[in-house]
Design brief:
Blueprint: E1 34-47, E2 50-64, E3 70-71, H1 74-88, H2 93-102, H3 107-114, H4 118-125, H5 133-144, H6 146-153
Antiparallel strand pairs: 1-2, 2-3
Helix pairs in contact: 2-5, 3-4
The chain binds zinc ion.
The site of zinc ion (ZN) has 9 residues, from loops.
Length: 161
């Protein structure tokens, strides 16, 4: 994946740029009928060994008005992942950030102490991946119970970094 570090804009929460033109040409039926829609979407996804069915009440997605083809992009996936996280009852990225802030540690430190890669924690925070139910419980315990944090301080794995 090409990276554009200087252009990265985290404040832009809109799934699509305002200057994008609609309707667009459909990849499926070739008609110029693809519009940006906000739909109620019934999702069925597997995560962490379980199947989940849930509704995303307001999914912003491009839909072809002619053939009904939906265009799934990374931004669409992020919305579905966020809805699934909510459905399962896992901490949101904002809640994880808040937890890290509350204990006054860096993301890197927290990742090391609980035994995950910093990149993994980043993916949870960027809404590109969801933590497992067990990792969610571990993080909750880590953020709220000082003795758990104390216990993980002595983890020998930390010594190597
Ligand atoms: Zn179409």
């Amino acid at each position: 994946m090409p990276r554009k570090p200087s252009k990265h804009n985290t404040t832009n929460k809109k799934p699509f740029a305002v200057n994008e033109e609609f309707p667009r040409k459909c990849n499926q039926c070739a008609k110029k009928k693809v519009e940006l829609e906000t739909i109620s979407y019934d999702a069925n996804m597997r995560h962490d060994g379980r199947s989940y069915s849930f509704t995303v009440p307001k999914l912003e997605i491009m839909v072809c008005k002619a053939c009904n083809e939906k265009v799934f992009t990374g931004k669409v996936d992020q919305q579905i992942i966020a809805a699934m996280r909510k459905h399962i009852g896992l901490m949101s990225p904002a809640e994880i950030r808040e937890g890290i802030k509350r204990i006054g540690m860096s993301q890197k430190e927290v990742a090391e102490r609980v035994g995950i890669a910093e990149a993994t924690l980043s993916r949870w925070l960027n809404e590109t991946q969801i933590q497992s139910r067990s990792m969610d419980k571990l993080l909750r315990a880590y953020f709220s119970i000082p003795s758990v944090r104390k216990l993980f301080e002595s983890d020998p794995i930390v010594a190597g970094s």
